[in-house]
Amino acid sequence: MHISEGVLSPVVLGGGAALTAVGTAIGLKKLDYEAIPRVAILSAAFFVASLIHVPVGPVGLHLVLNGLMGLLLGWLAFPAILIALFLQALLFQFGGLTVLGVNAFTMATPAVICFYTYRGFLHRGGKIAAVAAFACGATAILLSGVLVAVALVSTGQAFFEVAELVALAHLPVMLIEGIITLFVFLFLQKVRPEMLEGIYA
Amino acid sequence: MPEPWSIRKRSLTVTWILGITVIFIFGVISTPAFAHRIIVFAFAEGDTIQVEGKFVPDTPVRQGRVLILDAKTGKELLTGQTDDQGKFSFKVPAAAAAEKMDLKIVVEASMGHRGEWLLKAGSYLPGAASGQAAKPAPAVAPAPKAPGTQVANVDQQALEAALNKVLERQLAPIKEKLTELTIHRTSLTDVIGGLGYIMGIFGLWAYFQSKKGKDA
Fold first, then answer.
1. Do B26 and B49 have their domain in common?
2. Residues B1 and B44 in one domain
3. Taking CB atoms and an 8 Å cutoff, what residues of chain A touch B106?
């Protein structure tokens, strides 16, 4: 999921950075005092999640949790992901500082999209909400995969090669993230419904 | 479904305990640092350079594209592909040896994964030099001395070359290990440090927000 340094062209890097800056600005505007702990917890979860390896599929990937972040944070996912990615780049050498913008954009944008897509269904509760939570986790990964592919293709890599790999590689992760998002959602609904306030706002 | 306060309170305590346990388990499991960073390292063995690429922590990069570049100009010297063990080897290009280039070795895998290694000229040139010196006999010393010393000179050079070869072979595994050791691997300290940074950053943010609230 993290694109390494030196792969993308400067145009793509600049574009990603600009879009991330816009997203983060919107996120920070919405970040009020009450939401800070929520953002901090999820930022920390995202930071650690990428160390958890999913050893299935041709390449094997790690968790991303951006669907879950979208579900709980909406636009606030942008600053949360940006900070976690920045620290990952510094401490783990995942991605890199020049690709920070692109990586944040490919992971945070699906979070925001999923938030607005599934909010209505999550709202309803019951089985519909459960299905929506699963779909939220899975779709976010899929969209991230697509965005990574777009970034690579617009830098000049062969389209079919990239698209095939991205689709294949992300299937198992989609499933796992869907399940995780589903369980976290059900759990929070039961014991900490106020954490889900983003959906109801 | 409003629950009695006491039950709700207890379930919250349970939640916190669960949450903390999960964080600790994640912390422990993740110590070996699984993820998708490619590490590349290269070392010289005689006039051959061995390159190895792997995903952290230990999965070889199979059929990854290898690029050998001149570190200064970025000119491509040669390209190749890693084998099933993630390894690739090549003879030091004559141009690189002649111009004492630092080599930038890049291994690329699918989906934007890429790793680099800088091989300094100093660390592969001795091997390359000894490999080439063996072929053309060194220019004979100009001073017309006794023929005996010249023979001894050549003998000594041959001996040195042979010694170099043996040494290279013996030292190769040590070099490989040493090179591997210089690579930074994610440690538990990094993970905990990162979590601490996140807490600090958001703590600061909360602090300023709370200030603002009071002033207003």
1. no
2. no
3. 6
What tokens were used for A82? 């940006």
Helix (H, G, I), strand (E, B) or coil at B79: strand
Inter-chain contact A93–B197, Cβ cutoff 8 Å?
A: no
Q: Under an 8 Å CB criterion, which residues of B touch A? A: 11-12, 14-15, 23, 26-27, 29-30, 33-38, 55, 59, 106, 108, 110-116, 184, 186, 190-191, 193-195, 197-199, 201-203, 205-206, 209-210, 213
* Tokens 């976690």 sit on residue: A84
Q: What is the pLDDT of residue A132?
A: 92
Q: Supply the pLDDT for residue B3.
A: 46
As for how many domains chain A has, the answer is 1
Q: What is the predicted pLDDT for the residue at A83?
A: 93
Per-10-residue mean pLDDT for chain A, 201 residues long?
Answer: 80 92 92 87 88 62 86 92 91 84 93 91 84 92 87 77 73 86 88 76 60
Task: Give B132 to chain A, closest Cα distance, Å.
Answer: 34
**Six-digit token string for A115:** 């938030």
Does residue A1 belong to any structural domain of this protein?
no
Sign of the CA dihedral A10, A15, A20, A25? Answer: positive
| B106 beta partners | B67, B116
Inter-chain CB proximity A39 and B202 less than 8 Å: yes
Domain holding A63, by residue range, is 10-200
Provide the residue range defining the domain that includes B177.
38-181
Q: Cβ separation of A7 and B106 shorter than 8 Å?
A: no
Alpha-helical segments (H) within B30-146 = 94-99, 121-133
- For residues B127 and B43, membership in a common domain is answered with yes
The whole-angstrom separation of Cα B115 and Cα B205 is 35
Structure token pair of residue A160:
């079919």
pLDDT, averaged across chain A: 85
* Mean pLDDT, chain B cut into blocks of 10 residues (216 residues total): 49 64 52 57 81 77 83 82 85 82 83 80 69 47 54 79 83 78 76 89 87 66
| Shortest Cα distance, chain A CAs vs residue B12, angstroms | 7
ipTM over 0.90: no
- Looking at the structure of chain B, the number of domains it has is 2
Residue B1 and residue B45 share a domain: no
